[in-house]
Amino acid sequence: MTTRGYIKDYPRPQFVRGDWMSLNGVWDFRFDDHNAGEQERWQETFVETHKINVPFTYETRLSGIGIEEFHPYVWYNKKVHIPKEAGGKRVILHFQAVDHVAKVWINGRMAGSHQGGYAAFSFDITPYLVFGADNQITVKAEDSDSCTQPRGKQRWTKDNFECFYVQTTGIWQTVWLEYVEEQRLETVKITPDVDRSIVRFDYQVEGVETSGDLRLEAIVTLKGKPVKRVSLVIDRPCLTVEVDLIHEANGPWKKCLWSPQHPNLYDVEFVLTLDGQVVDRVFSYFGMRKISIENGRVLLNNVPIYQRLILDQGYWTDSHLTPPSEEALIEDIDSMLAMGYNGVRKHMKIEDARFLYWCDVKGLLVWSEMAATFEFHDLAVEAFTKEWLEIVRQQYNHPSIITWVPFNESWGIASILRDTRQQKFTEGIYHLTKAIDPYRPVITNDGWEHTVSDILTLHDYVENGDGFMKRYSNLEAVLTCETTCNQWKFAFAEGYEYRGQPIMITEYGGIAFRSDKGWGYGRQVLTEEEFLSRFEGLTMAIKSVDSIVGYCYTQLTDVQQEINGILKEDRTPKFPLEKIKQINMA
């Protein structure tokens, strides 16, 4: 089942309008290794040297180019016909992701720029267009090998190494156009309140300066049946309305909470009218669900939940970070569910919005994790903070997201154990995240050396269950930093201590089959039986520790030289998935 406003391949399924056009497909393309393009004004007269299949980056096979060497400056150009009938409307050009800096020209005139390789952005390009004619869209993407740039698992050297893979340069998610009126709903922040039986809509509206009667209506339905209809006069750009969701005599909405077992979603239609005429119509949805922490447990809808997560880096053989199709995203989610996992830790990547949509629909919990920098510097602090806050705002409405993870394994904050500046940086990000979203847990340094985390998460690639039990038989010693949580890292940075948070093992396993083409954690196994024995021993050992309330196995798929996935990189299972499910559900 899908939501009411669902459109296949629509790039922003949480905020759907019908009047749009995908610009994916063949674009003209050119490398600019000497950064001469702007000086030579390529935006005015573009001479391509390649064709590229957007949104796949030049490093990938699906781009049609498939060159893996790093090129810091690349250019795109496409002629797009803007119909004459669109005159009088605003035309918005959307980019779901461009790594790392994007500069955009329309018919040779600068329309805007954006920095940050994982956040979506858009420009109103109306002033630069000729309606009823072809228009030239030119994009320059600037990338770097700087470790002050949020880059996640993208390598900054010539070759892959350890767990770092081929870089991603330029447009790597959907590019699209949207036709809107002057008066329109710009954003809506949707906050469910399970305890009060309400949902709050925080609106941002464009065109409020009009002299007419501007009104906004929200129509909430559940499984096609009407729930509530609320309307208000728009007299300023930002407004808030709370909607009481108790409907019918005894409030049966309580049976329609969102959870992995029952991923119930309310549809909501926002209708903006000017003097009684519809000027904007947006379809969205929300889930009534609550995440909280109490007595060392994570609660979903006020009931403790044991999280069985799997780590997913979101790479594909022929397209790297870019999903090859919407169906590929659905296939990955279905594979996780088939193995008995109720959640995913999306590792070092901000995933396509369609992935989050299908997690909402299918009931897969998500930990959303920022791509790391790898050097602590003022430039890194600035770039990281700006992009992370963009991402939190953009992903806020997805009910499947239950945890924010801005930092992982001290990447970009390598001296956090003792460096007070790096410690304060993580505290600052924690509190800024809470300022936007006080309703989800935030983990400031997943794995070890925590400062102010809502959940104590530990990474440990001990090889077998006996080794795990030996290490964690005295959990108190780990929590008080008398001993390390693995072989070399303490649970907390100096000056911080355990305060009763829930405890989870959020990386373990990483078991690989014998191969000379890649690596896993610990000794490589020879047979399916050997893999399953080790997997079961580790997983059951974690489950046997009452104080541990969940785990995350590494990992869903092989990724380039890292071959410790349960699935191969082409998504072929290495053995029947139900065998993993039997252990997870034991």
TrEMBL record:
Gene Ontology biological process terms, A to Z: carbohydrate metabolic process
Keyword Hydrolase: yes
SUPFAM superfamilies associated with the record: (Trans)glycosidases, beta-Galactosidase/glucuronidase domain, Galactose-binding domain-like
Gene3D superfamilies found in the cross-reference section: Galactose-binding domain-like (2.60.120.260), Glycosidases (3.20.20.80), Immunoglobulins (2.60.40.10)
Occurrences of domain Glycosyl hydrolases family 2 sugar binding (ranges): 22-141
Domain annotation Glycoside hydrolase family 2 immunoglobulin-like beta-sandwich: ranges: 184-289
Keywords, comma-separated and alphabetical: Glycosidase, Hydrolase
Pfam families: Glyco_hydro_2 (PF00703), Glyco_hydro_2_C (PF02836), Glyco_hydro_2_N (PF02837)
Keyword Iron-sulfur: no
An annotated Gene Ontology molecular function: hydrolase activity, hydrolyzing O-glycosyl compounds
Origin: domain of life: Bacteria
InterPro entries according to UniProt: Beta-gal/glucu_dom_sf, Galactose-bd-like_sf, GH, GH2_Domain-Containing, Glyco_hydro_2_cat, Glyco_hydro_2_N, Ig-like_fold, Ig-like_GH2
Domain Glycoside hydrolase family 2 catalytic: from-to ranges: 293-582
PANTHER family for the chain: BETA-GALACTOSIDASE, HYDROLASE
UniProt family annotation: Belongs to the glycosyl hydrolase 2 family.
Entry protein name: Glycoside hydrolase family 2
Organism: Paenibacillus rhizosphaerae
